[in-house]
Amino acid sequence: MCQSAVKASYWFPSPDFPATEIDSSLFTHLFCTFADLDSESNQITIAQWNQSEFHSFTTTVQQRNPCVQTLLSIGGGNADKSAFASMASNPSSRRSFIDSTISIARSYGFHGLDLDWEYPRDAAEMSDYATLLQEWRSAVLAESSSTGTPPLLLTAAVYYSSNYHGVLYPVVAVANTLDWVNLMAYDFYGPGWSEVTGPPASLRLPTAGRSGDSGVKEWIEAGLPANKTVLGFPYYGWAWILANPNSNGYDAPTTGPAISNMTVRSVTVR
Prior knowledge:
Elements: E1 8-11, E2 29-37, E3 44-45, H1 51-62, E4 69-75, H2 81-88, H3 91-108, E5 112-116, H4 123-147, E6 153-159, E7 163-164, E8 167-168, H5 171-177, E9 180-184, H6 212-221, E10 229-234, E11 240-242, E12 254-257, E13 265-267
Parallel strand pairs: 1-2, 2-4, 4-5, 5-6, 6-9, 9-10
Antiparallel strand pairs: 1-13, 2-3, 7-8, 10-13, 11-12
Helix pairs in contact: 3-4, 4-5
GO biological process, one term: chitin catabolic process
Pfam families: Glyco_hydro_18
InterPro entries: Chitinase_II/V-like_cat, GH, Glyco_hydro18_cat, Glycosyl_Hydrlase_18
């Protein structure tokens, strides 16, 4: 029997972990990462070396779990923020983006689309973000009606909090247009962006601070329904070089990363 709660993971193609190795019986949804945004055409593209992996992704993971649904994730942490901002600011470029996402999702056999714009940086970009989501939902419904196929799922990877460094997400638009959002409740601390050690993905903190719990509460208090809120956590950890080996608890001074890591993201039950 297919499950209704979201148990999902992001997957990036790698020779070390091909799609055939995914135990899809553990998941309800799997995100294939990442499609890129072409800043000139405002259409999404898939790198040539990834095309065969992306084309076969759905059929591959459904061999072990016919119920699992797949989504194509667009963007990612290394994507060009300015390209997303430029695309979302113009009706014509939004249309090019939206049309290309629907076309590729259908041709590659995905059940949905995931926007991973990290992150809209000011009020104007958040307003354009809302408009993009609204037009995207309308286009998905129109395509579904014209083809007689179930509408594509629409999701987004978002900041762990509804307040991104003083810039508020358009929570009403998010709630009205997306099937759910994946809260990126991780990388609170890490070598390269924090000078001291700390819990990279704390569910709760005994004192005030960033945590999955605080992020979920902020999104729900801002108006996002609880059943559209999916808490994200990482499959990986971080290691620092300590400035003083004898100072090795939270808030211990560091001098940089101890090892190099490849990150793999996941989301868990909503």
